[in-house]
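Problem: given the chain below (172 residues), write out its structure.
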Amino acid sequence: MSEALEGRAPRPNAALAGAGALPRRYLHAGELVVCSEPSIISTILGSCVGVALFDARTGAGGLNHFLLPRSLTSGAEPSARFGDVAMRKLLDGMLARGSELRDLQAKVFGGARVLNYLDAPAHRDLGAANFDLAFEFLEAEGIRITGRDVGGRHGRKLVLYSHLGDAWVKRL
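Solution.
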């Protein structure tokens, strides 16, 4: 389900000229970050999914990295390891920085089928369940998806320029 990704490689321009001086953040599974200031956010995705949100009006951007689609526990502290929690926290972080739903753009990455199961045809794979959850959430919130690179059999390295909404993806 891989599709062409708008902004796959950051375009050389004045905004990227000082990219070496920008703060950098690496996300592990279950983490997310929302930035009001220009930043470079990177992560490695296998069956996990990362969703980037960007608001051109405010310059805010963010990325989550979730491991499983839905949280099954109630009463425990909600964990961003689960897509339903990670998506809500990412959106809430963007709204807290002055974004409005109509201004948000999303890009969805990851969800590879990296594990082989003997009965794979009988069951949906974890990666697909993860990116399906992301697409369903974004559609329900009315957030426009401007890029995607999902599915397949290989992991990805993702680098996001939060202030531009540009992403660079390398298949692993």
